[in-house]
Amino acid sequence: MADFTMKTDADGVAIITWDVQGKSMNVLSLEGWKDLDDCVTEALADDAVKGVVITSGKDTFAGGMDLNIIAKMKASAGDNPAQGLMDGLMESHGILRKIERAGMDPKTNKGGKPIAAALPGTALGIGLEIPLACHRIFAADNPKAKIGLPEIMVGIFPGMGGTTRLVRKMGAMAASPLLLEGKLNDPKKAKAAGVIDEVVDDPVAAAKEWVLSEPKIVKPWDEKGYKMPGGEPYHPAGFMTFVGASAMVNSKTQGVYPAAKALLSAVYEGAMVPFDTAIKIEARWFTSVLMNPSSEAMIRSIFINKEALEKGANRPDVADQKVKKVGVLGAGMMGAGISLVSALAGIEVVLIDRDQEAADKGKSYTTAYMDKGIARKKATEEKKEAVLGLINATTDLEALKDCDLIVEAVFEDVGVKAEMTKKVEAIIGDDAIFATNTSTLPITELAKASVRPEQFIGIHFFSPVDKMLLVEIIKGKETGDVAVAKALDFVRQIRKTPIVVNDERFFYANRCILPYINEGVRMLKEGVEPALIENAAKLVGMPLGPLQLTDETSIDLGVKIAKATKAAMGDAYDDAADEVIFWLADEGRMGRKANAGFYDYDEKGKRQGLWQGLRDKYAPKADQPDVTEVQHRLLFAQVLEAVRALEEDVLMDIREGDVGAILGWGFAPWSGGPFSWLDILGAPYAAERCDQLTETYGERFATPALLREMAEAGQSFYGRFGTGVDSKAA
Q1: Quick one: pLDDT at residue 296?
Q2: Among 505, 525, 542, where does a domain finish?
Q3: Is residue 417 within 8 Å of 446, Cβ to Cβ?
Q4: HSE-CB for 21 with a 13 A CA cutoff
Q5: Burial of 621 (0-12, 13-18, 19+ CB in 10 A)
Q6: Res. 394: pLDDT tops 80
Q7: Element containing residue 140 per DSSP (H, E)
Q8: 3-state helix/strand/coil string of 177-244
């Protein structure tokens, strides 16, 4: 069945309905473009049709475009993919321009048939770009609906006319948060902003009434004398808008995200020419972005691979394991957060702690969260009561009896965790799964306390649980498929993104992030300027420099991890960073929580700047390294651990390695993740650079055997492994 179908009613209104079969939300495919074009062409040619309404057969309008279209357009052009993309884009623009002009006389702007968009719910990306080409946009009064252009969040920008039309409709200043930040609005806010035209109870009925009213349909930018709202770029007001926007883009992106700069260029250049020329300019900049390896990597990791993992790409083939009731052991910050996200997902929760006061305090985290939502008008008192009603905060372990999943979040101590495991397994049902939330302790070791290790698994939440998108699921040596499926289904229920890894000290995420922190601390100790370390990290796309990250996670935690790791690894442990961390702890500088760490803070905890005592203790050397050298040390410290994790079967799928790195600790999102970054560099260069770093700084930068082999064979990670690691030995 076609994605778009058309039916003309007795009043002469052609209703074009978008309804992709087998999808919960409409997405645009190449076939869909053709269907839409055919429907519009037929409607414009039919004398019985007085006007057109484009709507959806679902309760939403559209979630965007199938980004696999880009790969198809590239592939169709053979040796000239840029031309293939440009040709495909201009074909798409032709369809939207056909809607916009609607048969009007090109010289007089008279005639034509009114075309309205009727949005029953959410309209994102191309789902808004199509309506923007229509003559009027009607949206249902649905406060849960989201309307906007979020493309910038996956490394591209609205390149199907959305950028040009929105700026010409609203002005560059008003459009900037929607384009450069991907801001989404509910229908009423979208109308107030000027994105859509009407918010009504029945958008199809209102749209039909409008198209039959013989309205004026020519767009402002197609009329003589059109002036852009807010001023043209060559006028003083408009010029200052672009100066400010350019500064904002560079401040937020540090120059490593090509889409934002390209978007700004498309807007600036397009604003100085007629509309049809502006569309070509937008298409050229969009093609440039799509050809950039950074954008391709971001789309693959943040959109395609993330979605595949959330849909269970690596889920064992066992029956549905949806969680009905979860028991959370420990009502501290982590347990409180797990309880919150579980209750928000509609799961019944038993929150256990040693005393009732502690259990109640854990539940109060949800109370505070819901109160904030109410204050921001994102929640109601009724919703708050419903969520709180799902959480039973208690000291009674017997309340866990009918839980089908236990998540233990007690103190990070093998003995304490073992004691809780034994107590709880004596109470819960035979089919219940026991999960331990730990960031460092090996799951196989913890499972020794269990009488059913095949039902014992690790679920590593990142803090704060309600904000962090990633959950790391760790398989012990005896963990069974049902336990893995249970963990994956639970993570999906609470709307997080899961990765599944095999058991090893620090698992995957912490295994990669600790070398990043340690390398930054090493450089400080060597005499590299602290500001150079921090700014080099941010300039390459890391959200936090290694010193600031240590402050955020706390110095005393770093000391604890260092001591535990040294005890476990013995002579194999690298203690090069310990001197600095232990010194700060002795000075009482425990990080942000103590308002003193690598940085100084004011009494409200606001970061003031790097602590002068760092330079006093470790005097900066006269000859400072260049920025690229610092950046390579920081990045290779992380990506080499990712490669080793793959070699050692800790990581089983490079997609999980890339998605996990971006969502787990913010690894330079512009790169698409560690494996995507190595593919951008190319294995031969990466191996050569490792050799140089090894010669200068030591064996921690030694080229892994897998990377060396790939360099010699001229292979890429995604070319070799695709969506898995079955070809590791190939």
Answers
A1: 86
A2: 505
A3: yes
A4: 6
A5: exposed
A6: yes
A7: strand 136-140
A8: HHHHCCCEECHHHHHHHCCCCEEECCHHHHHHHHHCCCCCCCCHHHCCCCCCCCCCCCCHHHHHHHHH
What is the identity of the amino acid at 525? K
Residue 153, domain extent:
4-291
Confidence of residue 234 (pLDDT cuts 50, 70, 90): low
Burial class (CB in 10 A: 0-12, 13-18, 19+), 616: exposed
Residue for token digits 């989404």? 184
pLDDT recorded at residue 206: 97
Q: Of 356, 355, 351, nearest to 333 (Cα)?
A: 351
* 498 Cβ neighbours under 8 A, 6+ residues apart: 309, 310, 470, 471, 472, 473, 487, 488, 491, 492
| Residue 567 domain flag | yes
- Percentages helix, strand, coil for the chain (3-state, rounded to 5) are 55, 15, 35
CATH of the domain at 560: 1.10.1040.50
DSSP 8-state secondary structure symbol assigned to residue 620? P
Name, in order, each residue with C-beta under 8 angstroms of 397's C-beta and a sequence gap of 6 or more: 352, 423, 424, 427
SS (H, E, C) 635-680: HHHHHHHHHHHHHCCCECCHHHHHHHHHHHHCCCHHHCCHHHHHHH
pLDDT in tens, 488-541: 999 999 999 999 999 988 899 999 999 999 999 999 999 999 999 999 999 999
CATH number at residue 458: 3.40.50.720
Residue 604 pLDDT exceeds 80:
yes
Query: For residues 548 and 1, what is the distance between their CA atoms, to the nearest angstrom?
Result: 55
The structure tokens 């010669």 sit at 695
The residue with tokens 């090893």 is 504
Q: Are strands 51-56 and 115-119 parallel, antiparallel or unpaired?
A: parallel
Regarding whether 429 and 340 lie in a shared domain, the answer is yes
Cα torsion 461, 467, 468, 474 to 10°: value is 20
Per DSSP, the three-state class of 436 is strand
Two tokens, residue 642: 């990712």
pLDDT band (50, 70, 90) for residue 255: low
Q: How many CA atoms lie within 13 A of 209 on its CB side?
A: 8
